[in-house]
Protein 1
Amino acid sequence: MMIKTKHIALAVIACTAILSCKNDKKAEEVKEVVEVVKEMQPKKLTMKLEAKSDSKAQGSVVFKEIDGVVSMTAVLGGLSEGTHAIHIHDKADCSSADGKSTGGHWNPTAQPHGAWGDATGYHKGDIGNFEADASGNGVKNFSTNEWCIGCDDKTKDITGKAIIVHQGTDDLKSQPSGAAGARVSCGGIIM
């Protein structure tokens, strides 16, 4: 709520300044205020996941960036009961029937595959595992300051990548991808 209040206050200041502008200097100041307001707005991406590899797995993912932290909520259905891996892959290309057109895990810092936060290394796309219930439904929540939405840092920017859900469990150690099995659902992270 505090963020929205700040945004509203800044927008009011910008509008007031625009209405009272009498010279180019004030107009430039207004542009700067408007840019600050835009930068403070939370960034949000919503995407659909489509079934791959002859599965029925699908769902949606929402990414939000607030104050330098990106949160992800994935809501999935049509899965088999049990543990499934979810990763960010290198390309937002879900065109192939098996999801392999997305390439490997997103790994801009050239680290070994592993559990998120592991001292021995992990890919920026190594989100981990989640559980699907007896009805095939699952939810994965995740947040980090190591991602951004549409920023200029290629080691953090998740746009242009893809979310992949796997049939099996990521063992968090097998190289290069955790031996998680078939890619059963895919969605491009596109602005």
Note: The beta strands are 43-51, 58-66, 69-77, 82-89, 126-132, 138-144, 161-166, 183-189.
Protein 2
Amino acid sequence: MSKTEENLWAAFAGESQANRKYLAFAAQADKEGLTQAARLFRAAAAAETIHAHAHLRALKAVGDTMANLKAALAGETAEFTTMYPEMIRTAEAEGHKAARQSFTFANEVEKTHAALYQKAIDNPQGMEPCDYYLCKVCGHTHEGHAPDKCPVCGANANAFFKVD
């Protein structure tokens, strides 16, 4: 990989992180009633997404849907088999309970994502139309309808929202 490609991946990561951070900042500003600050954070977040997508285009890192599904499956699988288990062990060793819970929830949800991607890979043309619901507590992704109780964190059905 060339130094420019390394830089593009690093820039992509930084822009992606800034987007998520600024959206979290916007939500906090909204809670505090600081509407204009929230708008500013959302505008900057959208700009960071534009930058991140431009970096991906420069890398030619978006393929056809089957290639993208396979890349997503590989990424999710690496997260729940390697990345998060090590992070969970470290958080446990350091006694960081909030980090351990956050990593554990994410680890379980990544398994679901991998299964959903595998299902799509196995039958991309035959995917039945369905809605997806996300748990606001842990991010669990559920097909069809919101479950009565989240299988990952135990939150009740009102913690789920439909993805448009």
Note: The chain has a mean pLDDT of 97.
